[in-house]
Task: structure prediction
Amino acid sequence: MSGARQNRIRAVMATVTSVSARPTSTDPFLPPNCPVQTLGKCGSTFYYIDSQGQLAALPGREHSRLGILTLFDEHKQFLYDTWPRKDKDGNTTGWRPERGAEDLMGSCGWKGVWDPTDRVRGRGAWCGERGELVLHTGQHVTTFAPNPNVWADRIIKKPGLIGRYVYPAGEEVGAPAETVQALGCMGPGHELLALLRTWKWRRMDLDPILLLGWIGAAMIGGALDWRAIIWVTGGKGTGKSTLLQLLESVLDYTLVKLSDASEAHVRQTLKHQTLPVMLDEAESEEDNRKLQAIVKLARIAASGGKIGRGGSDHTAVEFTMRSAFLFGSILIPPLLGQDRSRIGILELGELSDDATRIDVSHDHWAPFGAQLRRRMVEGWGRWEATLDWFRVALGRAGHSRRGQDQFGTLLAAADMLLHDGEVHLATAGEWVTALKASDLAELDDDARDEDRCILKLMTTSVDPFRNGGRKTLGQWTRIAAGWDSGDAVQAGQVLQSYGLRVRADQLLIANYHTELATLFADSHWAGRAGSQGVWVQAVRRLVGATNAGAVYFGGPTSRATAVPLASILQRHDPDASNASKLV
Result:
């Protein structure tokens, strides 16, 4: 090692005394013109922004000649100039990767610990620390302050380390139009809405508005608190395929379109991006577990949740999902209520034979999408106020908090695409009226989990005597309680064989019972050997449910939960003439 290099290392070690006393001067390991930026290290992994502006994670053992070359790419001359290998005559014959590794790793160590968790922001929209809209289009990172001069005051930077976040470079997509976009009947929002209304929707006054709102919200989805999910469904002759092609063209190459994908495929395709996702041909099948995993992923993305996975190097990896999802299929597969209530279901009807064909080409509609994106950017300063207005109005119309988030986001985005300034009250009032909570198919299956659990239990049909005389457990319960005619003693014996018992005005449900475990085996209320069933947690949430202690069910006693009969059954048939006599 040369004397000059030894002196430089001694000087560096003299300044780097501890992690808590990092020097703030120029990097002592790399020259200022280095095309690779060091970020720091976490464990044995060193992090860089390579010469292309992309994030690179290089384990210490991979700082080889090829490993370093992947960081510098075409900037090979820098390697020869900075870490030259010379012959005896002083001529440069190559470069020394061991010296490059020393300096690169030394610079990362000098920078300190750098953890990529929640520090990487890929292409798409993001929310700044002071409420700014940050639009990462691949080769540019543009920050829009929420003020009236949102476009004029924008700040454009190259990808890389900006503040505490790394914005990795990528292919340029999704830039807003440079020209101001009109509103009213001459604006791009109204033009697209008019086109969407040429399809035959089940809710003609509502569904085109919701789809327009999803398009607008998807363009800035990563910056929002809630990302709405849409499911477009329709059979042959409804124009569903053409509609989805139109959306693909409008959203340009920002849309991640997949078919027959797995949850891992979707997650790994997105990585750190917040681009919208379209899952076409999401059909109901005999085994829907793969699709249900993607629906769960979309549900997590709606609220911006984190997903943790183990890495191949035995280190944990976290993903934050912030993409808006759209599904398309002929039929919608069975969905849990918690999923269905988070999805806007847009159903298409069959078009007439003389329906006009439209041009859905990318070349025609991609510039149009840029115009819509410009309107969303220009309206960013009023987004929160617009969303709050719709949330309050939807709450007054009977929507739950989840409904306010879902439909409020869609309507607020539609309003921003169609109007300037404050909420257009006349139009907005019509939209909220059309979204009456009691009439929405999306909320038809929005029962509480505990109500679903007891409904499954009470509607299960059994034939205990193997004579073809099947009755539901609810019917046996009514007979045992004396509410319906029949042999109450016999009914009580049947219930005990299934871990149930009527006592006074309560139904006792065993916390652990083989027959109950079998009944709930194919549901998320199932139990496992040696533990109480998950159904116990559900039924204990019912109004009036209490701990019944140890109860005899025809064998050894079992701890049980007591549920008031009045909260799960009606004394009389509500469809009969005496329907008003309910418990």
Remarks:
- The CA atoms of residues 362 and 383 lie 29 Å apart.
- DSSP finds 19 helices and 24 strands in the chain.
- The longest strand covers residues 558-564.
- Residues 12-24, 574-583 have pLDDT under 50 and may be disordered.
